[in-house]
Every structure is written in C-alpha cells, then in structure tokens.
Amino acid sequence: MAYSAETDTRIDEVADGIYRIATPVPPSVVPGGFSFNQYLIVDDEPLLFHTGLRRLFPHVRDAIARVMPVERLRWISFSHFEADECGALNEFLAAAPQSVPLCGKIAAMVSVNDVSDRPARALGDGELVSLGRHTVRWLDTPHLPHAWECGFLMERTTRTLLCGDLFTEGGADHPPVSTADMLEPSEQFRLALDYYSHTKGVRKMLSRLAMEAPTTLARMHGSAWQGEGAKLLMALADRLEG
Ligand SMILES: [Fe+2]
Ligand SMILES: [Fe+2]
Fold first, then answer.
1. Which alpha helices (DSSP H) does the chain contain, by range?
2. Average pLDDT, whole number, for the chain?
3. Are 225 and 219 in contact (CB under 8 A)?
C-alpha cells in the first residue's frame, strides 16, 4: 500500500502490560477508512505482535518509544506473512539488536528464514514462551482466516488473544478498548471483501481458541474487544459454517 500520509499513531494500554498501537487510515486513502494495530507486551522480554507496514515503521517505532526503549524489544512476532503483519520486520531487527522473529514453523520455513535478516525462533503448535510476568502460547490456525502459516498468540496472564485478522472491521477510528458488538460489523466486512480462505475445519480451530477462554480479543483492525471471547469465537464458527 502506498501509504505515506502523516499519521496519527497512538498507543494505549488495553490489558495489564499490553499496549495497542493504532494507526488510522483515512477514507481519502482507503474507501471507508481502515486501521492497522500492533500490540506491545512490555515485560522482561518485550514482544511486539505485528510490525505494521514497512512505510509505517517510523510511526510505530516512535509510539513504542513513548512506553519503553525500542532497543529492548526481544521478540518480533506475527500471525502470518503479509506486509501489515511483518513488513517492517528487518527495520525492527535493526533497531533492537537482541530481537528475533517469533512465528510458527511453517512461516519460518516458507518465508521468514529467507526474508529476515536474522533466523526466526519457530514455534510448534501449543508451544509456550515466557516473557517474564506474561506467557504466550502459539496456536496454529492454518488458513484461518487466511495463509497456510497463520497462527495466533494467547497471552495467558491477562487472557488476551492476539487474534490478528479475525473480526476485522472497516473504519479508521476505533476506541482502544470496546465492549460493543463487533461481530456484525466484522461480518459485514468479511462478506464484502471475502478475505477469509474457504478452508474446512474452522470450528475445530475456533473451538481450540475458545478453550483458552480469552477475555480480550486484541484485533489488528478495530478496537481491542473485551468480553466473553469464547462465546464470540463460537458465534463466528456458526457464521462461517452458515
Ligand atoms: Fe492478513
Ligand atoms: Fe492484517
């Protein structure tokens, strides 16, 4: 995306030690407007989930710097291999000398260990990584919502599911945290853009995410949603199978 307009990137704490970095894309750039979020877990081994587009790097970096020194980053993690998920990977690896990509095994094998300036720590399905106070668990979700290498991180202390492109909502401006219904607007977006793969087995994968009992669904495009995450994940399964 040729997005180089002045941005209004903000950073807000949405769960204990977890920050949402949000950049609105105005309707003049994308019809209806859009948003790109990254999540920063501040801990002994700080983790960034999604880097944002390469061209947004200075904005995301500066937002992180308002909370902690960027060079402290230890893990640069992402759900799957796309520009908004990891386009600024090498920029962050350069900015934080101790940092390493953290992704699923398929992502490491297919893309990351070629494109990245440093090799990834590749996680198996269900693998845990302790960051200090927080612990994340990698969950493989191949092709859900898209990309063979797709997966998510569940942060177990705050019960925050870093749910990437699930429940993507259009619009540029969303509050950092919301408890309002987001199933209907995200379903409208899905039906209009058809950005999901048409893979089978979504109920099994969504049930597994639901079993983690998240109370925050940290979306990449929209607010961080708070509520009974398991119920919403199963409602999504119903829609996808409907
Ligand atoms: Fe994506
Ligand atoms: Fe995305």
1. 57-65, 83-86, 89-95, 105-107, 113-115, 183-193, 202-211, 229-241
2. 96
3. yes
Residue 165 Cα to ligand 1 midpoint, Å, equals: 6
Centroid of ligand 2 to alpha carbon of 18 (angstroms): 19
Distance in Å, CA 166 to ligand 2 centroid: 9
Residue 49: its H or E element: strand 47-49
| Axis crossing angle, helix 229-241 with helix 202-211, rounded to the nearest 10 | 180
CA of 75 to the centre of ligand 1 (A): 20
The two three-digit tokens of residue 104, written as one number = 């699923």
pLDDT band at 242 (very low <50, low <70, confident <90, very high): confident
CA 17 to ligand 2 center in whole angstroms: 22
Prediction pTM value? 0.96
Q: What is the pLDDT of residues 140-188, one digit of tens each?
A: 999 999 999 999 999 999 999 999 999 999 999 999 999 999 999 999 9
pLDDT per residue as tens digits for the range 105-117: 999 999 999 999 9
Nearest to 179 by CA among 215, 127, 204, 147: 215
Rg of the chain on CA atoms, in Å = 16
Ligand 2 centre distance from Cα of residue 85 (Å): 6
pLDDT of 5 over the 80 cut: no
Distance in Å, CA 197 to ligand 2 centroid: 14
Ion ligand 1: residues, CB < 5 A? 82, 165
Contact criterion met (CB below 8 Å) for 44 and 64:
no
230 alpha carbon – ligand 1 mean position (Å) = 22
